[in-house]
Amino acid sequence: MLTSIVIITFNNLHKTINCIQSIRTFTSLPYEIIIVDNGSLDDTVPYLERLGGLTIIANKRNRGFAAGCNQGMKVAKGELLLLLNNDTIVSHRWLDNLRLTLESEPNVGIVGPKSNWVIPVQTVKPVYASEAEYHQFADAFNRHDPLKWREVTCLSGFCILFRRSLYKRIGEMDESFIYGVHEDTDYCYRTIRAGYKLLIAGDTFVHHEGNSGFKGGSLDMNAIAAYNRRTFLKKWGVDPDRLAYTCDELFLPENRGPAVKTSRLPGGILVKGAGDTIYYLERGRKRPIVPGDTFFCFGFRRERIITVPDNELSEIPDGLAIDYAGPFPAYFPRTFVAKDSGTGVYVVAHGIVIPIASYEDFIAMKFSADEIVQIPDAYFSGLHYGYGPGLEPDNACQEYELIDYKLYEAPGGGLYYSEGLELREIADERLFDCYKWSPERVMRLTEEQFAACRIGRPIERAAGEK
Fold first, then answer.
1. Boundaries of each Glycosyltransferase 2-like domain copy (predicted)?
2. Burial classification of residue 215, based on how many CB atoms lie within 10 Å of its CB (0-12 exposed, 13-18 middle, 19 or more buried)
């Protein structure tokens, strides 16, 4: 079975040469190499044309990683597709082991190796100081061992192997992600939502220098990462860094299988059936609230609980429990108001920390004191910072975020409820009574903010409510 190896290049010819030489030296299975050059200014294209044995696509400009991969996959002949960075060096049994991992089960979607420069869950600390030592290390490391495989929520796109059938099912890479950050996260996320697994081949190691495409040009990696992260958030309502850097299996049940449809009921509300369990609705799932202090720690109020028929409650898929004593952030709501050990108050939304600069801003955002949740300072260290009313961004990595579970009025009229970075229309004002919302908590959107928002499914009345 042929494997089509797609390599995107942008300058750094010497690294591309090393990569190709390592493939030709250490690959025993049938393969082809497809080079997509993104407008290199060095001698990359002429040299590779002289080298021979390659399919070369030469772009006149840098079209980005996603577009380059799409070009390569379109001309690929293999039943297996492998995307490989040009600043990698492969070694003994690398492709053999990756294929064994991929072909272990029909529902394995994408596999990737361990490396020295990659997201934390795939990282192995290098114990070599030269290329010769690396190959010695890899010869010992790359021994087939399924016990070292691990299912995760994301794989780094520096080296990923998947079947052509997956490519046909979920489509091309999303070219709205510019240059080279989070388009791999998006592809992995789409794979999970289609019902497939992502596996780390923990018995395979590939050397990776890392970020060479940025080092070889004048691209601003921080600005690109910020833009692409915002693109992912707007598309999925999920923080891609949470998937890539947490890689916690606790998130897999929420993301596995067909996309969770937005419930006709709004998120951010408390519901119960005939039993005693109280649920918090969030992104189309019902999350049971662990009995005890959790209910009050998160500022929930019993007068805001809505009783719904058991048959309607049973139709809402289950989610992870809400538990103040559980692991952070998996067992916490996706959006809440947090306080540190000092005087800082923040909105934590989708893994983003939005500082609230003043009491006036707190009031403008329509929060109340009983919503504030005290959390350990250590929890803040793994989150990313955005900005809210009254604050300006310090750098390109900070973006304005639409806060979940807030009531908004559009510039031309019309009421909306925010959920998953979408606005859900409130067509009937009687829904305010149904869901115990207060008109005093409605905020006004600017035309620019409203134009940037996606419009989601309208909110409907809960069964049994008049």
1. 4-170
2. middle
- Indicate if the pLDDT at residue 396 is higher than 70: no
Residue 50 contacts by C-beta under 8 Å, 6 or more apart in sequence? Answer: none
CA-closest candidate to residue 196, choices 113, 118, 105: 105
Both structure tokens of 70: 């799409």
Q: Tell me, what's the pLDDT at 44?
A: 96
417 membership: H or E segment, kind and range:
strand 415-419
Paired with 111 in beta bridges are 161, 199
Does the CA dihedral 69-70-76-80 come out positive or negative?
positive
Torsion over CA: 296, 298, 299, 302 (sign): negative
> Is residue 253 a contact partner of residue 153, using CB atoms and an 8 Å limit?
no
Domains of the chain, each with CATH number or no CATH: 3-255 (3.90.550.10), 335-385 (no CATH)
Which string of b and e fits 84-123 if b means at least 16 CB within 10 Å?
bbbbbbbbbbbbbbbbbbbeeeeebbbbbbbbbbbbebbe
CB 99 within 8 A of CB 21: no
Whole-angstrom distance, CA of residue 184 vs CA of residue 174: 9
Task: Name the 3-class secondary structure at 271.
Answer: strand
Which residue type is seen at 197?
Answer: K
Tell me how far CA of residue 350 lies from CA of 57, 232, 443, 446, in angstroms.
Answer: 39, 12, 20, 22
Considering only CA atoms, which of 377, 370, 255 is closest in space to residue 328?
Answer: 377
Distance CA 31, CA 95 (A): 10
Residue 252 scores a pLDDT above 60: no
Banded model confidence at residue 391, pLDDT cuts 50, 70, 90:
very low
Residue 393 has pLDDT above 50, yes or no: no
C-alpha 375/C-alpha 419 separation (Å) is: 23
